[in-house]
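Input/output pair, single chain:
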Amino acid sequence: MKVLLRQNISQLGKIGDVVDVKRGYARNHLLPKGLAAEPTKANIKAIEAGKQRYLEELAVKRGHVEARAMLLRGREVTIAARANEEGALYGSIGAGQIIEALGEHSVGITPESIELPSPIRRLDKYDVQINLGQDVTATIHVWIVPIREDGEGEEAGEEPGEELGEELGEGPGEKPAEEPGEKPTEQDLSESAEPTESTDATDAPEATPDTPPAPGDETDPPQQG
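Output:
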């Protein structure tokens, strides 16, 4: 069945083109949605008259779409998922999770816009193309990473603070080396704490001053006869 396109349709044609499509596609989709009309002389004349205005409006819309594409192109998003040791996911990642990961940049993006041939089922990096309309696309990079379980590092033989030690230049789990020699005993420490004897003159016995004789103890000088 031949129809006259009233606007540009991807992979089908541009406004004013007369194309041949399946009858069911024309009756159920193109004609009811106003995307096409029967190729009569009146319709062809009317579409040609409004074609320039449509193209001008289309150019403005395309500018907005291109601006959005510039914000999305090359953007990287990360999605954490449970996986086994071989990297196979317990489940799959689809368009919905990718849109959610885009956050504020997902406005106007539908699951149909995400060109994902099949759900993602393995840990890896994937380049995903988004169809923004007006024949404008943007490719983003999606990282699928494993969810880190609590205590995973301890099971692998890691000790708390091991990563910090490596950053400081110490080997994993290494302790600062001690000075060679035996550790002092408690007795050595107590003896070193006691004051040592000094041989200075101040430690010699003090000389006691001569004491005068008590009264009555004095001897009288011998009397001369």
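Residues 76-146 form a domain with the Ribosomal Protein L9; domain 2 fold (CATH 3.10.430.100). The helical segments are 23-30, 41-72, 95-102, 152-155, 162-167, 186-193.
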